[in-house]
Amino acid sequence: MKPSRARQLQELQAALLMADSGSDAPYGRVASPGVDTRHGVILYLEGITVSFDGFKALNNLSLDIGVGELRCVIGPNGAGKTTMMDVITGKTAPTSGTAFFGQNIDLTKLGETEIAHAGIGRKFQRPTVFENHSVFENLELAMKADKRVKPTLFARLTGEQADAIDSTLELIRLKHEVWRPAGLLSHGQKQWLEIGMLLMQEPQLLLLDEPVAGMTDAETERTGELLNELKGRHSLMVVEHDMDFVASIAGAGKVTVLHEGSVLAEGTMAQVQADQRVIEVYLGR
Amino acid sequence: MSAPYTPAAPGRLQPGQRLFSPKAWAGLLAAVAVLALLPLLNLALPPGHPLHVSSYTVALLGKFMCYAMAALALDLVWGYAGILSLGHGVFFALGGYAHGMYLMRAIGRDGVYQSHLPDFMVFLDWKEYPWYWAFTDHFLYAMLLVVLVPGALAFIFGYFAFRSRIKGVYFSIITQAMTFAAMLLFFRNDTGFGGNNGFTDFKRILGFDITAPDTRAALYWTTLAALAAALVAARAVTQSKLGRVLTALRDSESRLRFIGYDPLGFKLFVWTLSAVMCGIAGALYVPQVGIINPGEMSTETSIEMVIWVATGGRGTLIGPIVGAGAVNGLKTWFTSVLPEFWLYALGLIFVLTTLFLPQGIVGLLRQLASRRYARKTP
Amino acid sequence: MSLTAILNFWRRAVLVMLMLTLAPCALAAETANIDAALLAPLADGDTGAKLQAISQLGQLPHPRAAQILEALASENLYATPGGRILILLGDKRAMDPVAGEQLDLPADADSIVINNRLRRAITGALAVSQLFSENPQVRLAAARRLQQSGDASTVALIAQALAKETNPDVRAALEIAHASLELKSPDPALRKHAAEALGNTNNGAFRPILAGMLARDAGGAYTEPDEAVRAAATAALKRIDRHLSTIEWAGNLFYGVSLGSVLLLAALGLAITFGLMGVINMAHGELLMIGAYVTYLMQLLFRQFAPAWIDWYVIAALPMAFLATAAVGMALERTVIQWLYGRPLETLLATWGISLILMQGVRTIFGAQNVEVSNPSWMSGGVTLLGGLVLSYNRLAIIVFALLVVFFVWLLLNHTRLGLFVRAITQNRRMADCVGVPTGRIDMLAFGLGSGIAGLGGVALSQLGNVGPDLGRGYLVDSFMVVVLGGVGQLAGTVIAAMGLGSINKFLEPWAGAVMAKITILVLIVLFVQKRPQGLFAPRGRSVE
Amino acid sequence: ADTIKVGILHSLSGTMAISETSLKDVALMTIEEINAGGGVLGKQLEPVVVDPASNWPLFAEKARQLLAQDKVSVVFGAWTSVSRKSVLPVFKELNGLLFYPVQYEGEELEKNVFYTGAAPNQQAIPAVEYLMSEDGGGARRFVLLGTDYVYPRTTNKILRAFLHSKGVKDSDIEEVYTPFGHADYQTIVANIKKFSTGGKTAVVSTINGDSNVPFYKELGNAGLKATDVPVVAFSVGEEELRGVDAKPLVGHLAAWNYFQSIKNPVNAAFIDKWKAYAKAKNLPNAATVVTNDPMEATYIGIHMWKQAVEQAKSTDVDKVIAAMGGQTFTAPDGFTIQMDKTNHHLHKPVYIGEIKGDGQFNVVWKTKGPIRAQPWSPYIAGNESKQGL
Amino acid sequence: MLDVQAVNQYYGGSHTLRGVSLALKRGECLALLGRNGVGKTTLLKCLMGVLPIASGSVRFDGVDISRLAPHERAARGIAYVPQGRDIFARLTVEENILMGMAAKPAASARRIKGEIFELFPVLRTMLARRGGDLSGGQQQQLAIARALVAEPRLVILDEPTEGIQPSIIKDIAKVIRLLRERGDIGILLCEQYFDFARELADQFVVLSRGEVVAAGDKSQIGGDDVRRHLSV
Ligand SMILES: Nc1ncnc2c1ncn2[C@@H]1O[C@H](COP(=O)(O)OP(=O)(O)OP(=O)(O)O)[C@@H](O)[C@H]1O
Ligand SMILES: Nc1ncnc2c1ncn2[C@@H]1O[C@H](COP(=O)(O)OP(=O)(O)OP(=O)(O)O)[C@@H](O)[C@H]1O
Ligand SMILES: [Mg+2]
Ligand SMILES: [Mg+2]
Questions:
Q1: Which of A82, A88, A99 is nearest to A47 (CA)?
Q2: Transmembrane segments in this chain: where (chain B) (predicted)?
Q3: Cα–chain-centroid distance for residue B98?
Q4: What subunits touch chain E, counting only 3 or more CB pairs under 8 A?
Q5: Which residues have C-beta within 8 Å of that of residue A247, sequence separation ≥ 6?
Q6: Which stretches of chain A score pLDDT less than 70?
Q7: What is the overall mean pLDDT for chain B?
């Protein structure tokens, strides 16, 4: 079992790499105006506040993520983790503060579509897939391509693209469900499908909101491996409540703890777990 | 309003695959051939002949095909992109009016007042054509208007509506407001389109007598060709990746944004395409029925179009064509045989269709076919 | 026996009683007898002769003279081929005004036809005699009528009446009447006074007289030679105009609110069936129609069995209409709509079919024509405010009624669990079922409620317009606009949208005309939705997705 | 065939059903009457009833069906002008014969159509003349109020020209239009009231169909009485008043070529026949049926057609058309009226009636006898030369 | 109290549950385990009556309830926390909780008992917020609260810990334990979080491809047999 999975991962990496380098080829015209990451930082959040009718879901939040970093974000329910992702992906406009993708792309000025073009992909907390489309079509739609009207109308699936979809299917173990409408999948299967869609998008920054919720321990482990593989080439931000999983992917990397809309603590997993405040509000005694 | 709607048969086609299956192609061509033959049977055979097709039937079918094309156009936006328009009548009528302007000018001085102006203008003491009638005496220009006017209205309306992310019933209702406003506007005599009488009493088209049997046949064939072309075009659009984007749009628009599609462009494309198709249908309709007036913009007319689509089977392309034919055929038949009770029959049919044929007539046929198929291959 | 007949009978009876009580004091008048020759032209004279007879009767200080005039005005004066004039007392009994005796109405007697000109003359004639009536209310009305008549011959009478008058209201009215005649006086001081007095009335009816004073003739000379009088007239005109524009403004507001209430009543039921339950209910209009037809039936029933209570048939119609439409609604829900939840667009198709059936059903039963529904007497006419703005009683009643219905709906939705359950069901039917909501029953009740409210709306609409098979169609589009504009599922939004649409419409109409106002409103709706794509009271945030 | 087919083309559903249904019934009654009298040319008439459902293109389709499929000899039908305009080309193309029974705006003459309703000079102009007369109240200011479509626009145009010829200034004429189905007349009634303060005012109403009731109700409740501001209407007859509480309307006027209240034996027989028919056929509200002008016009039309067929000894359209000119008929309106030889319109008497409390009309004015129709109004420039076909 | 016998269920053509049987005693907690897509949720839905069963029987307190509608089952004292939360998104938090008491007579369902807020304090501060606006974890808490206010006799929990912060998971565990100790409530717990399940369960059942492949009591839950069916 193990070797084959490794092979799949390799294939996927290869596909992703190819896309990274070959920015001239078929998608030349979508190429985002190049993310400037000279300072080694892919995402800056600076003093972000989001308030809903007076309630501050995010409160002067500042955070940055380095290129190739895998950042875990944890925090109590309602701390503002999902809201933060909403701000990054343009779903929610911050009341104040700035959000930059690299040095040069001001996310607060862009719409959801443009942000996705710029290279940020997201997996939602609740699996959201196109329920009436087959698994294959879901992946096909997500696949990196020129997503404007005319090219979409005349799009033909190339062999490479078909292969990329194929290997993703393999990876998310939905090969035998290719033509099932995604709405009929079980909860866990939808989670995987959404991860697959995210991978097909080939974003530079991946935002994963509770990727392993509802997965079995074994699958959780597999997801961890996958994320570890992606680390380095892509930047990732992962939100999870499963501490074992967080520990397994964070390694020596940074973990950020949010609380009431701002950063409560930051550090390695071990440091954070030992922090009294974190134990108080989040981990419990 | 995202109804949990599943296409009658899951799209088994590999993306990028052929347009129709060979069987479907054969069926389609056969249908076109049979329909194309009818005017010949009308022209060539004497009325007494058993195979003779009356000119009434031909005229009727010509009209139905225009309706079918409008229904097809509506299905494109409603069935696929989930945009329910309760105002498609306005595009139909605008196409009709655009062509009607040409037909009115083609009357020349044969009108009641023997003026170069249409009768209603003479009557209003207008000495000149208003500016928007300019060049409408050129057939090609009028045809351009047929495409441009509904297209432009749809584009502008759609642009603002979709940009503001107006969806679901809100969109439906404002399309209704649009067609209602247009109807009131066209009702006014001062608008310059003949008030509620509209345009009628056409004499000729491109120099041919509009009531001559062979002109009628030619119009019929044009309509048939347009309908077939529209069907193929619509099929091509829905089978493309864009078609899948549209259905995704219908089910979860916001999700689509997060993977990098801008819904505005897609909606606008299909909406405008549909309006243009509808306008062409209207343009073909006018010379065949001999009148265009604001009644076509009434909210009832637009709702009826929706009903054709629903009855035939939404999201199937062929369904709306069948539905338009079936509903109008029944209406024609009932209004003659049951003049006082036909509304009961029609109403009942609508109710029963929704209850027992949720996927419309085509859905039922598909279900029957798959059952037969299942029986054959246990 | 029709309603009119009953009313007339009573009026007659009261009049006769009045006459009898007055008889002793009118003894002196008895002497001037009513003469058959005087009445003869009424039967067969030409208009001129009739006019003369009427005028003479008006000046005759005989109690029966007024009675004759009244009978003539209400088409209760009969003539036999032999030229005998009779007053119909009701129920085939008649009175000979010459002899004063009662008899059965001869079969060959025919009602005397009058036209508007005669009708006007009768009112004028009656007014003069009524100036001396015992009843101050009658005197006041008479004085008001005389204000406008401008008949110089009455000036002496008015002065006479003024001398006797003690009631301040009547005096004021008489003074104005006097003033309007004074305008023709040769004395500039009197004319000036008259102009001022007329200005003080704030009554638009005097505008043309005043404006006439300021007009110039062909030679460029003013009709009114005196400078000071002209100044007074100008001031009076300004005053009246200012007042008129106030009235206009207030009028528009009232018309707006009243149109708003109509829209609200038409839309409220839909706010439940469509707004809360998500059924695109194309048969909503027909539910309104059924409500209106129930009103009609109630009217028939009352006419038949309780003619004395006829004025209250509308009240009785309310519960009946509610129950009847609710029953129809529940039946529809159980047979058709319950299979369509979660498929809102299919409900459109099915309910359209239902609407066709209901409409044709009514045509079959009641005929394609409209049926007659009359306003009860307490809803006829109106109250005059600000000296010129008429608020009609039926409109007022409907405004009040609309508010009551809103309150009732609000109570039901917010203070019973029904509202909560309905909202929960539309949001997540399956889960509502799982927490123990009997979804089937709640659906049926809610749809019944929405339909019942539509029925109530129908009762109200029957008091304003047609009751016919098409009644509902006319309101369907408007109802949907109101509900959608307010924000689907928002009761407060529905109320505000209805009132807003009504008022905007009414403020636009005077300068845009009814057609353009309607078009403008529709365009405004389209523009408004751009700004508020989810209606007025749209919930925002994550929850909407 | 041993029957003669006769088409009846009136909307039985949709917005126009309200007016047209009873015309269908009258037509059936007349046909029954003729059949009972031995039919036409010894053959029975066979009515073919279709429902064009108030839908104008459907009118054209049904007309074509009647002429081409059912091969009817004549069609009685249509109410609105647009429905007539819509079927005209069909009648011309297939050389059919249409009898149109409703008053209309004129400006039309077709060989294939016989107009048994009034042209503007047979209705509108006499009505306005009456309003200006002393008996009519001597109106000097006019509100021309109509629904925004061709008939009111045309009629008002003619009336305006007529009023000009009578010296009425434009400032004394106000033209107001409302959309179809308009139901809120508050503002308009308030404006009429305001306008009427400027002098003796009358309202000429060409409001269509369903809008009349809300208008009159508003008028009544706003306290505008017929003695103050009379309203003369051209689309309100006995049938329309059946659906209204007529009491507040007393004194308002209507101009027609026929009223049920006209007293003569022919009319009495006509009314009796209709009442009996309604009862026998169990029509809805049979107890309260009334007759009105378009019904009479339908009745006349069918009888005249029968006479013409018998004179022509054929149902051939051209022969019947030729025989129609000069046909006379003793009509319920009290005169022996004649089909004009040249313009296919009837010579008709004009009556002006005041509404009574029971929904009937008091005739307050009438012409001495039938007058000839002027489909081409002389008040419209360029019409002088047009007369007959 | 709950007795499931040989339940079969199909989605169209696919056989999703194959003769599933299980039994739950009053005062016990039964853990339902299995990989993704094996049919756990499907089984729970069948028990709640959301999905019809093709054959077999479901008995509750000795009565066959397999043909009853969900609300009738709710009226008998079954409460359900579905996977995916199914919050009434546009109802406020308060209304959502009130909905939990829908099966009770109106008089006794006017007020929310304070106890529930002791367990989920956030909910008290957010009573007026719309359910759909809550964060994922808050929604999950709300879903559990909604089930508990019904004072049910059988609680069906489909992955209740999903998306909930660790400290509250501990609290939820406490509550389940408490309920179990009261002895009059049955708990059917479907859980991927293995340690959580092991800690609370008295019995367990493992599903694989719609079939019961292993079952037993607390002591056997950690066995290889179980692990084998849970790993990939
Ligand atoms: N539209 C809104 N209106 C009001 N409050 C909101 C809205 N959206 C989010 N919130 C509140 O903002 C806070 C942050 O929510 P968010 O979803 O970001 O939390 P989270 O960290 O993702 O929590 P979880 O771990 O439970 O997913 C929550 O308290 C939530 O109730
Ligand atoms: N509505 C449906 N129609 C057809 N198949 C379905 C439907 N819902 C679920 N399935 C299929 O039934 C199987 C069981 O699904 P179920 O949701 O019960 O799994 P589960 O055990 O709860 O998984 P998870 O742990 O991921 O929640 C899956 O293969 C799924 O694809
Ligand atoms: Mg979250
Ligand atoms: Mg599950």
A1: A99
A2: 24-45, 77-98, 139-162, 169-187, 264-286, 341-365
A3: 15
A4: A, C
A5: A269
A6: 1-33
A7: 88
Q: Which whole number is the average pLDDT over C137-146?
A: 77
- Any CB–CB contact under 8 A between C543 and chain E? yes
A188 lines ligand 2 (CB under 6 A): yes
Nearest ligand by distance to the CA of A86 = 1
Q: Do D186 and C368 touch (CB under 8 A)?
A: no
Given the structure tokens 């989810």, which residue do they identify? C534
Test the B interface: residue of D50, D59, D61 with most B CBs within 10 Å: D61
pLDDT in tens, C326-379: 999 999 999 999 998 877 778 888 999 999 999 999 999 998 888 988 888 888
Answer whether C544 contacts ligand 1 (Cβ < 6 A): no
Distance C95 CA to ligand 2 centre (A): 93
Note the pLDDT tens digit of each residue in A84-128. 999 999 999 999 999 999 888 899 989 889 999 889 999 988 888
User: What is the C-alpha to C-alpha distance for residues C396 and C261, in angstroms, rounded to an integer?
Assistant: 10
Q: How far is the CA of D57 from the centre of ligand 4 (A)?
A: 57
Q: Which residues pair with E29 in a beta bridge?
A: E187
Strand partners, B199: B292
Give the DSSP H or E segment for A36.
Answer: none
Counting from 1 in the atom list of ligand 2, the atom nearest the Cα of E44 is 18
Q: How far is D2 from chain C (nearest CA, A)?
A: 33
Over residues C45-80, the pLDDT tens digits come to: 777 888 888 878 877 777 778 788 888 888 788 888
* Lowest mean pLDDT across C223-227, C416-420, D141-145: C223-227
pLDDT digits (tens, 9 = 90+) for D226-280: 888 899 999 889 988 888 888 888 889 999 999 999 999 999 999 999 999 999 9
Question: Which domains are delineated in chain E?
Answer: 2-83+151-230 (3.40.50.300)
C-alpha of C524 from chain center: 30
Q: What is the pLDDT of residue B100?
A: 95
C186 Cα to chain B: minimum distance (Å): 51
Nearest listed ligand to the Cα of residue A79 = 1
Determine if ligand 2 sits within 6 Å of the CB of residue A185: yes
How close, in Å, is residue C92 to chain D by CA atoms? Answer: 17
Q: Does residue C328 sit at the E interface (CB-CB below 8 Å)?
A: no
**B347 in reach of chain C (CB within 8 A):** yes
Residue of A46, A155, A158 lying closest to A103 (CA atoms): A46
DSSP for E96-107, written as a single string? HHHHHTTTS-GG
Sheet holding C93-96, edge to edge: C101-104, C93-96, C85-90, C77-79, C110-111
d(CA E228, CA E212): 14
Nearest-Å Rg of the Cα atoms of chain A is 19
Q: Which residue in the set B177, B340, B354 is minimally distant from C522, CB to CB? A: B177
Q: In this structure, are residues C336 and C347 in contact, taking their beta carbons and an 8 Å threshold?
A: no
Atom of ligand 1 nearest to the CA of E165: 25
Q: Which of B334-343, C98-107, D267-276, E77-86 has the highest mean predicted lDDT (pLDDT)?
A: D267-276
Q: Which of B170 and D270 is assigned the larger pLDDT?
A: D270
Q: Return the residue matching tokens 């309830």.
A: E65
Identity at C82, one-letter amino acid code: G
The pLDDT value given to residue A2 = 44
Q: What is the pLDDT of residues C23-40, one digit of tens each?
A: 444 444 444 577 777 888
In this structure, is residue B366 part of a structural domain? Answer: no
State whether residue A127 sits within 8 Å of chain B by CB. no
Q: Read off the tokens for C205.
A: 């009816």
Residue B9 maps to a domain: no
Per-residue pLDDT band for D144 (boundaries 50, 70, 90) equals very high
Question: Can you give the pLDDT at residue C24?
Answer: 43
- Per the structure, how many domains does chain B have? 1
Interface test with E, best of C421, C430, C431 (most E CBs within 10 A): C431
Written out in words, the top-level CATH class of the domain with range A5-283 is alpha beta
- The Cα D332–Cα D200 span in angstroms is 35
